[in-house]
Amino acid sequence: MVVEDDETVLEELRDTIESAGHTVLALTTAESALSSFLDWSPDFVVTDINLPGLGGGDFARFAAKANGRVSFILISGSSSSIEVEGARPDAVHLTALVKPFKPRDLVSLFGEVDGEAEPT
To answer: Which DSSP string do the residues of 84-104 spell out, in sequence order?
Structure first.
C-alpha cells in the first residue's frame, strides 16, 4: 500500500514497487487508506508523513493498532518531520526515508521491513 497526495510521486512509487515484484494499492489520502487497510491487509505501507487531513504518522499508528504485523516506511521531504514521527513511543515497525531518494533506496528497505536482508 502506498499513500501519497502528490499524484506524480504516487505514480513513481507505485511503478518502483511494482517493478520490484509487489502488488500495490495506491491511495492519495490517509482516510482512504484507513478504510481500505483491513480489506487489503498489506505486508508493508509506504506513506508520506505530510498528507492533508490525517497525517501519515497518525495513519501508521491507527493502522498498526488494527494489524501490528504491518511495517511502515514513512517518507517526507523534511528529515525533521521523520525524526519527530519516529521518536514517538507508540511508533512501531517504522523505517524512514527522506525525499528525494533513488528507487533503489526504497526497494532496499523492503527487506528491512520484512526482517530479511536484501539480496546482493
So the answer is: HHHHSTT--SEEEEESS--HH
